Amino acid sequence: MSDQSNQVGSGQSGMNSKASGRRRFVRGVGIATPVILTVASRSALAANCLSPSANASIALDNSRPDRQRGAGCFGRGPEFWKNASNEKSGHHGHWKSCGAEDRYFSACFSAHDGFRGKKLKDVLASQGQDESAGLGAHLCAAWCNLNSGRVPASVLSLETMKKMWAGRNGSYQPVPGVFWNRVQIAEYIKTTYSG
Q1: pTM for the whole thing?
Q2: What is the C-alpha separation between 182 and 168, in angstroms, rounded?
Q3: Is there a domain that residue 137 lies in?
Q4: pLDDT at residue 152 above 80?
Q5: Most buried of 1, 17, 57, 110, CB within 10 angstroms?
């Protein structure tokens, strides 16, 4: 009988160890699952503040899990900068401190073929009247954001902005073989805005 009771006892302890092993597994999965889901949901984080070449290359995004996302972009849109250009605006100090006061579009972007004789504030005021004016307004905002430190040059440099303006008719290439027109360029610039 003692052999029989030992067998029952050892059988129960085997069952208990299996059950506790399953509980440990379920607890481990329960803890690990949110972490895995957080790491795997990169697309929610990828929309912020990437350079044009990184933005144009989905394969690059997937091949660089170490890339810092959303780093240091607090850009403002054309409407903010248009209002800030008004001397009566509470944000006029931002306009002056970024150096936009009395600055000509052609001087900023080495542009000889658009907005001749127009200051940044004039281009911002004309936004939306046609596609060139819309892109011009977004480039003015991008210039102000760069010069006020809201968007780092590693994301959108002045040289890149000049290339965007020069290639606005479809010849701008964020990466070789990918061409953007003025609408796509403006859509990219919008990704650097935070509010």
Answers
A1: 0.68
A2: 5
A3: yes
A4: yes
A5: 57
